[in-house]
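Troubleshooting: if your tokenizer reports a length mismatch, compare your output against this known-good record of 71 residues.
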Amino acid sequence: MAKPDNRADNKIHLQQHIENTQANLQEAESYLDEHANEISADEKGIIEAKNQRRKESIQEFQAEKQDEADQ
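Known-good structure output:
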């Protein structure tokens, strides 16, 4: 039997996702600041692209959290 859809804690989980993603973003930005001269342009580009996706994810999590609050 399938478990019932319990959305009671979605806002909490979304906030945790936001905080974790922000921490990862900040860590990657710090890494770039400290090691920009030591890494290849390709690696730098990969990290920057991943950070862009993280920023987009944060916005999506925030929008989803707002949708949950509106319900």
